[in-house]
Structure formats: C-alpha cells, structure tokens
Design brief:
Bound molecules: zinc ion
CATH topology of the largest domain: TIM Barrel
CATH superfamily of the largest domain: Glycoside hydrolase/deacetylase
Number of domains: 3
CATH architecture of the largest domain: Alpha-Beta Barrel
Helix content: 10-25%
Shape: elongated
Strand order of the largest sheet: 17-18-19-20-21-22-23-24
Number of strands: 24
Largest sheet: 8 strands, antiparallel, barrel
C-alpha cells in the first residue's frame, strides 16, 4: 500500500535524518594540494601558466614596491609592474595573491633589532594595500616572510596578524638548505609561522643541482595516502619550464585528481577556522541551523556537512553550493548562517484525463494527437491516438511536475519506440518527443 506523501515526509524526516559531522576538507575531499611561489620575477607568469595546465591553485607571494631606491632593491623584485595584469587574471582564475612585503627586507642573521625595524607598517600594511588596490582581490589573507626572516618572533607574528593576515608562511634554514623538506603534512598548528611539505626547485641558483623528481613525487604520494595537506613551494627563478622539466612533471603528478581539493594557502586556513567555528543545530528533526560569528568578508567560504538521511528526501537551503549523495550519506556544501531542510519531494501533479497534443514534424508538417492518461500515484498508463493509429503506453512516470513516457508504435510489421519527456507548467505540458531515439521534437499538450 502507498502511504500518502505528506505522512511519508513526517515519518521519514522526524526519525531518520542525522547530522554526522563537518568534513575535514571541503566536499569531503580525500587530500589537499596547496602550492605557493615567492618573489616578483618575470618568471611568475609562465609558472602560473604551467599550474593552470594541471589544475593547481597557488598563493602567489609578491613584493609590491614598483620602483625602490637602488640601495633598497632586492634582486628579484624589479618586474612587479609588468606582473599586475597577470596577477589580476590569476586571482580571477582561483589563485590567491599574497604579500611578500614591499621591499623584501632580508638579513642574516635576522636578529630582533633588525626585525623590529624591518617589519614596519610600510612593509606589512603598505604591501597589503597595494594588492587590494591593484588586483581586485577583496582581502589579503597570506603573508610570506622575506628570506624566511623573523618568522619565529611572536611580536612580529602579532604585527602581521594585526594587519589582518590570517596565515604567514616561513622558509626555515635557507643557509643550510634545510628548507628543502620541513615535511608539514597537515595544517600547521601555528598559522602565523606556517610550514609546508617540501620545496620543488633547484637549490639556490645552481641549475646544475638536479631536482630528484622521483623522491619529490613519492613525498606527495605519502601525504595523499594519509589524506593530508600537501603544500609545496617554489621560487619561479629557480625552475626550468616545459612539459618535460621537473617542475611541470611534478605538477602533472599531483594535479587534476578528482578526489583532491586544490586551494591556495589563505583560503585553506580560512576554511579551517570557518569549519572549526561553525555550529550545526537540529531544529525540529528534519531542519538544521548552520551558524558562526565570523566576519563574512574574511570567512565567506563554504563548509561541507555530512548527514545520514533517507534517499527519498531532498535538501533545501538558501545558501547551498552543492549536494552529493552516496546512498544514505549526504554531503551538503553550504555557506554558513543558513538553514538546511530535508524535505519529501512534492506530491506529483495529477495528469489524468485527455490531452490534445500538437507538434510539427521535422519535414514541417503540423500534426495532432490525443493522449489519454490515467494516473495512480506516480505511475501513468494510457493511450496515444493519432490519425495513424493508436498505441498504449508501455511505461509512464510523474515526479513533481516532471513527466516521462514510453510508447511503442506498431505498423507495417515495424515497431517504432517513442520516448516522451517534459514538464507540466501552469496546466500545459511542454514535452520533447523522440522517435527511435532520434532528434527531439517539441510537443505542446493542452486539456
Ligand atoms: Zn623572497
């Protein structure tokens, strides 16, 4: 026996929808790939082009001073003026522009006196404001310490956080080449001194120092198999380009995987905070309120929530990004500060009765036919009649306002399968009819 659909909704929803939890990564991805590149060199453009061929999303750290005095010039920062148009396009394509200061102050050793003087508002806030003004990016989330200097001083971390940055990437032990593998395989505990997994580049300027592609790829495999965050960094001036070069070979190895979330560093750390601070509360069995108290200008992204729910129910929310089902497991990706509701599909329209169909054949002839329908629940039976004879429906379904029918027309010892699908809108059937799976013909049906 069929239950009335409203009763079905009440029974299913109240007992059977359960919030399982927030997924670790967006869209319940298996692992994360983050890339970051440093310095304002002319090689930045071709580096981004290579990433884009493999679906990699990076944080592009630039020093923003366009015309520094000669004594303040860092050797790589002189090409920034030509880079801005490419950076604007990169932001629009899903990359992030991060700050690498204005003038790239850099000294070894990076003692406290040097750091206190070098990390001025001019460097920290000035570079942020340049990026806001010149890229169209609404917020600057990420900082990168020039030469890896000063990253370990809490007072420097505080200055950077006070300027609105939410994550700051380090570059430890450059002199000893110890930076090649800090081996961070998840989010860093301290986002203001955040590490990465490994470096992909020639050592310093020595192009004779080969990149061990096999071991670099193996490190990615290790993190991927653990479901971790794989973050690799590069200096574009220390790369070779071309599909067979080590850099692009590594991009090919890690890129374009369906189960990986490719995301720049700032949006990834913003996601972590958004995920941790978002609360999900059940209200009345089948509805949930998803909320947090974060500033939407900074934490405007989405989270993914897992529910256990009967397959018959559909998800409604004002702020929905996507819904993915695996049987009873439902992954709902939403922008928080919204309500999610699991609802039974609306009752099917009633199509019982006689419909006059009109359509034009592919050779331009006007045709009319009559469709007699009898509906029981979501099932339809009936007959299609025209001057060329009549044929019973072999199957018919209606779900909400969506209609699907199939008919087999017989004649001249031949059988022609006819499929019809479409919707009921304001009392009119708008259908597409195909003979023998051929091109669809538009059909209007009126009572
Ligand atoms: Zn640098």
């Amino acid at each position: 026996m069929l239950l009335p659909i409203t009763l079905l909704a009440g029974v299913l929803a109240a007992q059977d929808v359960r919030f399982v939890g927030k997924t670790k990564y967006l869209h319940n991805a298996r692992a994360v790939v983050v890339h970051s590149i440093d310095d304002s060199t002319k090689h930045v453009g071709e580096t981004i082009d290579a990433m884009d061929r493999h679906g990699i999303k990076a944080t592009i750290f630039v020093s923003t001073e366009e015309d520094p005095a000669p004594e303040d010039r860092f050797f790589t920062q002189l090409q920034i003026r030509e880079l801005w148009p490419r950076l604007r396009r990169a932001y629009a394509d899903g990359h992030e522009i991060g700050s690498h200061s204005k003038q790239h102050p850099c000294k070894k050793p990076d003692d406290e006196a040097f750091c206190a003087a070098a990390y001025s508002d001019y460097e920290i806030r000035g570079s942020r404001d340049d990026i806001l003004r010149l890229t169209g990016q609404p917020y600057v989330w990420s900082w990168c310490y020039p030469c890896g200097n000063c990253a370990t001083y809490p007072f420097i971390q505080q200055r950077i956080a006070a300027a609105g940055y939410i994550v700051a990437r380090n570059y430890p032990n450059e002199l000893q080449n110890g930076h090649v593998r800090p081996d961070v395989q998840d989010f860093d505990e301290n986002p203001m001194n955040a590490g990465y997994t490994q470096v992909v580049q020639h050592r310093n300027a020595a192009k004779t120092d080969t990149i061990d592609l096999a071991s670099i790829n193996a490190k990615f495999d290790e993190v991927y198999n653990k479901g971790g965050v794989y973050h690799f960094m590069s200096h574009p001036q220390w790369l070779d380009f071309g599909p067979e070069a080590a850099y692009e070979s590594h991009l090919r190895h890690v890129g374009n995987r369906k189960d990986v979330w490719y995301v720049p560093m700032g949006p990834l750390y913003a996601f972590r905070k958004l995920r941790d601070r978002t609360k999900v509360e059940a209200v009345g069995g089948s509805a949930f309120v998803v909320s947090n108290d974060l500033d939407k200008r900074i934490y405007g992204g989405a989270v993914t929530l897992e529910f256990d729910a009967p397959e018959a129910l559909t998800v409604r929310s004002g702020n929905l990004e996507s819904v993915r089902r695996e049987g009873r497991r439902v992954f709902v990706t939403v922008h928080p500060n919204t309500r999610i509701e699991f609802v039974a599909p609306s009752a099917p329209a009633n199509l019982s009765g006689s419909w006059k169909l009109s359509y034009r054949t592919r050779s331009g002839l006007e045709r009319n036919a009559t469709l007699e329908l009898e509906q029981k629940g979501g099932e339809l039976s009936g007959t299609l009649r025209s001057e060329r004879g009549s044929a019973p429906l072999t199957s018919g379904h209606v779900q909400g306002n969506e209609v699907r029918l199939s008919i087999v027309r017989k004649g001249n010892g031949d059988e022609v399968p006819v499929s019809v699908e479409g919707t009921l809108r304001e009392g009119v059937l708008y259908l597409w009819m195909r003979f023998r799976g051929g091109e669809a013909i538009a059909v209007i049906g009126k009572r």
